[in-house]
Amino acid sequence: MCGIIGIVSREEDVVPRVVDGLKRLEYRGYDSVGVAVVSAGSLVVRKSAGKLADVVRKAGISRLSGGICIGHTRWATHGPPIDVNAHPHVDCSGSIAVVHNGVIRNFSSLREQLESRGHTIRSDTDTELIAHLLEEGLREGLSPLGSMARALSMVTGSYAIAVLFSSDPGRIYFARMHSPLILGLGEGSNAVASDVTALLDVARRVVPLNDGELGWISATEVALYRLGGNGELVPISPAELASRIKVIEWTPESASKAGYPHFMIKEIYEQPQALLETYNGSVEDPSLARSARLLVDARRVYVVGAGTSYHAGLVFSYMAATLARVPVYPVIASEHPYMGNAIGEGDVVIAVSQSGETYDTLEAVRDYKKRGARVIGVINVVYSALDRESDISLYTRAGPEIGVAATKTFLSQVMLLELLATFMAEHSGALTGSEALEYRRKLGKAPRITQDSIAASDPVARFLGERGSYKSVYVLGRGLGSSIAKEASLKLKEIAYMHAEAYPAGESKHGPIALVEKGFPVFMVATSDSPHISGNAMEMSARGAEVVVTKPADLSLEIPRGIKVIDLPPSQGFLPYEPFILTPFYQLLSYYSAVAKGYDPDKPRNLAKTVTVE
Ligand code: G6P
Predict the structure, then answer these.
(1) Around Cβ 573, how many Cβ atoms within 10 Å?
(2) What are the pLDDT digits (tens) for 126-165?
(3) Does 606 lie in the same domain as 498?
């Protein structure tokens, strides 16, 4: 999803720093790149569709210099990914440059109005309209800040913007509404960016902005305001600003490839560490016990998320039911609007989101709150919107995840949610205090088991991935295995562009089996709660399917000859280990399949890491 960065410095060194920041934003997914600098009093814009390294070279970005620069990675929403639609966008006079993440809803009417007032709109984007609105403000005699307030009170929708005015060459102006934006406070330079990752080389001290805030940064100063209902500017005091400063613990190294060919494989291999950090940071966190009480005493419990985070929610819903005997409704974030009427006082929702910025998840959370529900956030990025909007925040500690496909954040979410389920079980009385403690003690071994699983899975997944013959596959599971199968099939789709369909194995005979013919690949995610999956494996095999059963080594299944079995580390019958045992195999299979086909596993086509639009 679009990424923004702007840096203003006392030195003339910011263009390469902005390019580095854009590199760190690449993981969000993008199709075009651009920058604007003010050089010798005039605005210079360089932009194009394409990958960052290519655009930097072909658009001559590396030849630019200056002490103030804004940059952008675009993920197309309004208009195709072509040069003219790349950001920054400028006004008619070419003296105001705007980069934007978000969607302006009243785009069509604004465009009509601006054209009728004589503006020439060159692109298909909603962003360009902001530049023209700012131009009108200046023409009316307003200051740059006044013109920002005027323009923003005319637009509806979501935006994080950074703006350069050539008439005010020492300041970057910015504003935020429903799209993430963070200020970075450095030494002799200040910055603004879509996320903390982009700021790792620039600043350790950050201020996450709230909706409705705007202002400017210079190399040494910051001015922050709130936009009032009538477009008036309400200053935010330096004391309030200072109280909102957070110190970032992530390091630039944690966001680099550290010798691995891709972020995805690095992040798969980082899972044991991510799980250990998450376990250590959560097992005695009183917020888990507090959340558990809230959940057990709730009228109804929902878990909401998108993509992989939704799948972690499915694992949670299984664990809450089986371990704590608490029913949990899993909800896909974008589907929430169609079932919101059922929500009310006394309900609790767990919102799961790696980024804490996914639009659909945030919108669902806002609606739950409006209807009187309490919100528990499960978040990897601290100070993200979900972190700020949750009643209780629980943190996975996976570190920055750069690969677009979620890997280490998924298992970290599972770790945290399984721990939470043990606290719920204790509170509901399904487990005694000492039984729950024993569960948690055992979960402390999951990082080690994950490491063993990665080691066992890698050669087999590489062999199967490199064979490269899969186009269309089923991934079947029962019980806990059916949630893991969903995540496995998502990875195969996202990264290896394989048509992979997950189905509860028992349901597969009610339709999917019709497609099965000789050689059709069927993967089975066998978990110890559902040994009768072997019957489904036989049904598939009897129709000629090429069946591969993945299972913990100590799960004994009656499997006839001819069915391939991949034995992964044993689970000792402890079901909560099994997501950690089975998931890495499918992550690695997706990774090696993608690499064998020449795809970039870190930046799959059409996908974005953080989806900040509806
Ligand atoms: C995008 C990403 C997925 C991710 C989903 C939810 O689709 O490509 O990898 O699972 O968003 O993201 P979140 O940050 O809310 O976990």
Answers:
(1) 11
(2) 999 999 999 999 999 999 999 999 999 999 988 999 999 9
(3) yes
Do 241 and 202 lie in one domain? The reply is yes
Q: Which atom of ligand 1 is nearest to the CA of 306?
A: 6
For residue 526, report the distance from its CA to the centre of ligand 1, in Å.
Answer: 26
Verify whether residue 2 is a known catalytic residue: yes
Last residue of a domain, one of 223, 255, 287: 255
Ligand 1 centre from 601 Cα, in Å? 15
CA of 176 to the centre of ligand 1 (A): 21
Band of the pLDDT at 359, cuts 50, 70, 90? very high
For the segment 16-65, what is each residue's pLDDT rounded down to a tens digit? 999 999 998 887 778 899 999 998 888 999 999 999 999 999 999 988 99
- Whether residue 219 is found in the same domain as residue 318: no
Q: What is the pLDDT of residue 576?
A: 98
For atom 15 of ligand 1, the residue with the nearest CA is 353
Structural domain of 110:
3-255
Atom of ligand 1 nearest to the CA of 406: 9
On whether both 110 and 174 belong to a single domain, the answer is yes
Q: How many domains does the chain have?
A: 3
From the list 404, 381, 406, 405, the residue with the least C-alpha distance to 394 is: 381
- Which of 422, 444, 466 is a domain's end point? 444
- Is 609 noted as a catalytic residue in this protein? yes
- Closest by CA to 138, choosing from 125, 149, 123, 154, is 149
Return the pLDDT at 567. Answer: 97
Q: What is the CATH number of the domain that holds 384?
A: 3.40.50.10490
Q: Say whether both 429 and 515 belong to one domain.
A: no
The pTM of the full predicted model, rounded to 2 decimals, is 0.79
pLDDT of residue 1: 66
Could you write out the three-class secondary structure of 275-307?
HHHHHHHHCCCHHHHHHHHHHHCCCCEEEEECH
CA distance 228 to 212: 8
* Catalytically annotated residue among 2, 69, 266, 491: 2
Whether 34 lines ligand 1, by a CB cut-off of 6 Å, is no
